[in-house]
Amino acid sequence: MTAEILKANELKKAAPVFGQLSFDDHEQVVFCNDKDTGLKAIIGIHNTVLGPALGGTRMWNYQSEWEALNDVLRLSRGMTFKSAVTGLNLGGGKAVIIGDAKTQKTPELMRRFGKFVDSLSGKYITAEDVGMETSDMDTVREVTKHVSGISESKGGSGNPSPVTAYGVYMGMKAASKFKFGSDNLAGKKVIVQGIGHVGETLVKYITEEGGNVIISDINQERLEEVSKTYGATIYEGSDLYSEDVDIYAPCALGATVNDETIGRLRAKVIAGAANNQLAQEVTHGELLKQKGIVYAPDFLINAGGIINVYAEIEGYDKAETMRKTENIYNTTLEILTEAEQAEITTHQAALKIAQDRIDARKKENQ
Predict the structure, then answer these.
(1) Model-level pTM?
(2) Out of 12, 13, 40, 94, which one is annotated catalytic?
(3) With 60 as the cut, is the pLDDT of residue 268 above it?
(4) Is 289 annotated as catalytic?
């Protein structure tokens, strides 16, 4: 399994799809184009050994198609391991729509995207992600049954963000228990980077427990709103990575732990909701280990969202959803302990558990 991922600006040097490292043996990549609605989307289906590939749709104003392709491949790959390590009978998939969600998203565009999803006959099940709302999934549901995360009023599980945040909170508490000897976040200094739906709810959980939260976001209006609601401190410095804090919680886009930031990090724990937080899994995972920074693997602790939408497929209730999400605490502790005992990175430990489960199922199906 490939672990080192090419940056977007390096992709042109490789073969367009099969030759790039982030391809990592994807089963299928679907390019979707519709002139009438302006839809330009990519669906990545990484692995369906454990079940259909479930993963959200992200709408983002990518700088290039190469960047969009790399993102969907990294994200869909991550979904494979997220479902596997959490014990769900799902594969890994993801979709990206290229465009500005605030100005270019229309019901017609979403329905056209839904028809592309439907053409895959259930191999890929979509859901909500960055740039999407529950109402958008309701629109997609008009043309395909292969969508989850629809409104509760329509029989769905609703917005998955609160459950995602709860899982991250559980993972953060487990990492704190491992690092500090107690999972009590009271008095802990936490930087939450990115205060969208998930980030804001995470701020709520931490502050209710007595943690001291510092918030950072590109949206000043959101910063002021969340600060006023929860009493969080707005970060006004120039380098949040070098701040002397207990916990760094990346909850925006990925790859914030990279060559430029890792040497400056002073946090003792990294536990956040963002996908693909390590720009290079092997290199940066090892550097965190050497620095003694406890990294709670992102594809484990942010799995609450997929647990939530999986409930629509399996038909279990909210209480069971929260129970499964709360178990992220126990799984995180197990993985952190296993990594320490085996003298490997926490990312490697989590990845091994996920891959072993996939390999065992593949062997059963042969």
Answers:
(1) 0.89
(2) 94
(3) yes
(4) no
